[in-house]
Structure formats: structure tokens, C-alpha cells
Amino acid sequence: MIVPASDAKGTSLKIQITRAAGNENIWRQIAKFGQANSSVTSKEAVDELKKSIARKGHDLTPAQRKELILALDAIETPGQITAQVIKSFRQQYGTWTKNLGFQAIWVVGPNEALTFRLDETDL
Q: 2, 10, 43, 50: most buried by Cβ count inside 10 Å?
């Protein structure tokens, strides 16, 4: 789903929204029972973020990516937005995500404090 939006200056933004975690088993449990009990290691959470980004990167041309902000929805998967996961992801894949050519890549939690830009490296 591409959501049109605009920033405070009125500049048009195109935002592609996708799930932060692509673990289909979790989504099957949610569909069937309305909830899922799952625990993931930091490494697994980092790998899931990378898989979600790679899947969208593969589906879009470089010209399309250049026009889009990729937003990974982590509202239902809080294991994707811990400080350790974000730091590890940026260290391992910050350069890789930047080189994909999106305007920006964000993982979005339930509030601003749990929303992080991924296409940069930790300093």
C-alpha cells in the first residue's frame, strides 16, 4: 500500500508501508487466535527487518524506490523496535539500506519514541 502524505512544508511524500516482521507463522497465529506468543532474539529481529526491506527492495525498481519512503510497521511486533535491535541493525545493514535508494527507511512503532530511521549507521 502506498500512502500519499505531505510534510510540514507541503512537500508531497509517498510512503510504502509493509510489515516489519515477515514471519508468516506469527501472522497465522494472529489470524487464527487473535494473538500470538512469540519471542525472538535480537539477531532474529534484525534478520526479519532485513528480509522485509529486501522483499520490498526486490519488488520495486530503482526509480520507484527513489520516490518512496519505506515504513516498516512494527506496532504489533515490538521485538523489532528495541534499542539493541535498532543499534545492531544499523551497524550491520545501515549502509546496505542506504544503498537501496529509498528516500528513507523507517521502522514505525506505536509512538514517536519507538520509531527509528534504519538507513543510517550508528555513530
A: 50
